[in-house]
Amino acid sequence: MKVSAIAVLAGLLISAMVSTANAYELSVTVTLEGNTEPVANAVVSVDSARPATPVSAEIYQKDRAFHPHVLVVPVGSSVDFPNRDNTQHHVYSFSPAKTFNIELYADRPAAPIVFDKPGIVELGCNIHDHMQGFVVVTDTADTGRTDTSGKVTLSLDTLPSEGSQGTVTLEIWHPRLPDNTRPVTREIERDSESAIVTLNLEPEPAAEGSLDRLQQRFREL
């Protein structure tokens, strides 16, 4: 028995209507624990069935720092690490989500690094100990970063339905978490359109000091 084109079209329209009905925007505000100070650059995500598409990105080194300090990319993305300093760098990570080692180099590495597992990847430089950066690798498209007012809006198409118990789990990460190797979780009501969450953060790190002797050796190529 053949299914008519009208029946197929009707089914698609009903599916689209259900999807639209389930879609909504969730506004999340992140503040510092103990006061109402907004927390900028917190990465907020909701686990959903909407996978993110891999991208090509870069983290460059300039003035002996990683730019950006935090990069958020989907699983499967490739990241290049161009060196725009007049000193060499040695970029590495020991993080379980991605372990790699780009030995001492200038200009641009031979190939980008592919981040094929979700998680928090901490970056370092074997020549400049103060250098620190992060790659947040996510497996959901429902991910965003708070602005200077501590707010982020996630456009959610679908939410996990099994075992949700009427709540939605938010994952929040910030580089100054006491344990910044993993996000913290917060439960909010499933039908909430807005939420306020608080984070306990470490103080801002001290400013970089002058170059030590080892760094001076590699200042000029």
From TrEMBL:
The keyword Membrane does not apply. The keyword Signal applies. Residues 1-23 form the signal peptide. Keywords: Signal. Coiled coil: none annotated. InterPro entries: Cupredoxin, MauL. This is Methylamine utilization protein.
